[in-house]
Amino acid sequence: MNLLTFLLFLSLVVFFIIYGFMMNRHWQKMVKEKSELVKETEAQLIQMEKMASLGTLAAGIAHEINNPLGFLISNLETMHDYAGDIEKGRGDAVKIKELDEITKESLEGAQRIKKIVQDLRTFSRKSELQHVSVDINQILESTLSIVWNEIKYKVDVIKDYQAKTNIYSDPTELSQVFLNLLINASQAIGDKGSITLSTWQNDEDIFIRVSDTGCGISQEVLPKIFDPFFTTNRKGTGLGLSVSYNIVKKYNGDIRVQSTVGEGTSFTVRLPKELSEEDKRA
Ligand SMILES: Nc1ncnc2c1ncn2[C@@H]1O[C@H](COP(=O)(O)OP(=O)(O)OP(=O)(O)O)[C@@H](O)[C@H]1O
Ligand SMILES: [Mg+2]
Question: What confidence score (pLDDT) does residue 209 get?
Answer without folding.
Answer: 98
